[in-house]
Write a structure and sequence with these properties.
alpha+beta; 5-stranded antiparallel beta sheet; about 35% helix; about 20% strand
């Protein structure tokens, strides 16, 4: 019969072994990422086929909590659209093309980004995480009827994004407001 002490020792040894294996796997992934100059695609996923405009709107968020959209009404997915007009008292009206150009300039200044598609009133970019290479799909649509830039930012893989998509949109909002103030 095994003693309680021996059973505890066996459980500890198993947990220790699992931890070592996980650390080795993470070290290998990080090493590959460094060796491939950040071009790791293990966690990139595949590009969704529902991106773009459909009936003048961006696709809705999935039920998972790794997406934000200015069209969503619920607290988990909803985020305010971006403003593209200068302050009314200045009376400078930006065109959809110049609003998209401003967003493109902001995105290009951010690390690990790729502009995939650009149109007069639409921009689609991919953002890749530094360590694991996760890819998020981010879309912007200049909605002239609403006088706003609609936005959708979604992770391709996983359940949670730890707030990364919301934080990204808010960073872009801040930089857009800085651009508008400096013009």
């Amino acid at each position: 019969m095994e003693t309680t002490e021996k059973k505890s020792s066996n459980i500890f040894q198993k947990m220790f072994n699992i931890t070592i294996v996980l650390l080795v796997v993470v070290a290998i992934v990080v090493g590959i990422n460094i060796a491939t100059a950040g071009k790791l695609t293990l966690f990139a996923g595949t590009r969704p086929d529902n991106l773009g405009l459909y009936s003048g709107r961006l696709a809705p968020c999935p039920s998972s909590p790794n997406c934000v959209s200015s069209y969503s009404q619920d607290a988990q997915h909803g985020i305010a659209s971006l403003s593209y007009d200068s302050e009314p008292e200045i009376a400078i009206r930006l065109t959809p093309r110049s609003a998209i150009a401003n967003i493109k300039q902001i995105i290009e200044s951010m690390p690990r980004t790729n502009i995939v598609k650009e149109e007069e009133n639409y921009l689609y970019a991919e953002f890749t995480s530094k360590i694991m290479g996760y890819v998020d799909d981010v879309e912007f649509y200049v909605d002239e009827d609403a006088n706003a830039i609609q936005v959708r930012s979604a992770s391709r893989l996983g359940e949670s994004d730890l707030g990364v998509n919301r934080e990204r949109v808010e960073t872009i909002r801040e930089k857009l407001n800085e651009l508008k103030t400096n013009t």
